Amino acid sequence: MQVEQEQEVRAQIRWMIRRDMPEVLAIETANFEFPWSEEDFLQCLRRRNCIGMVAERDGRIVGFMIYELQKSRIHLLNLSVAAEHQRHGIGRQMLNKLISKLSAQRRNRIVLAVRETNLAAQLFFRANGFRAVSILHGFYDNTPEDAYVMQYRYLPERHAALEDAARTRRMAG
User: Fold this and answer.
1) How far, CA to CA in Å, does 30 sit from each of 17, 25, 88?
2) How far is 58 from 11, CA to CA, in rounded Å?
3) Which of 50, 101, 130, 140 is most buried (CB neighbours < 10 A)?
4) Which residue ranges form the domains of the chain, and what is each CATH number?
5) pTM (2 decimals)?
6) Distance from CA of residue 103 to its chain's centroid?
7) Calpha distance 139→146 (Å, rounded)
């Protein structure tokens, strides 16, 4: 079995705006069995502490994330990358953007819930420094499925290494 070597591509990560919604919904619908509706997105984004960001490449939205700022943590509500852009580093770039918002003084962790059957997401988050910390039994309305709560904790030495890597990438072009 041959394993494809995927090359990381750079994406611009910016705030989500209203006209991004059709592309965001297309990615959401293609990637999830129980996708968020447009109303779900709008209801969330109307809240003062809820933020949407998109990853853009060559003028197209290739991924997005929705997160909520809480007192001592960031709650990642939704993250998705278009199928044809997965395994190219887009999701990692979005996570790194979120991780860069952490500090020892304020928000020191990122938490999220992932379906027990979504092994790909579990492995992705684990590869990016997240650890399962608890189980939410019967968490979802649409299935009896459980969710794993995964968490990324701010560690000053890990944060410094990420900043060094980002600086090196910027200098390399």
Assistant:
1) 20, 8, 18
2) 8
3) 130
4) 12-172 (3.40.630.30)
5) 0.83
6) 18
7) 5
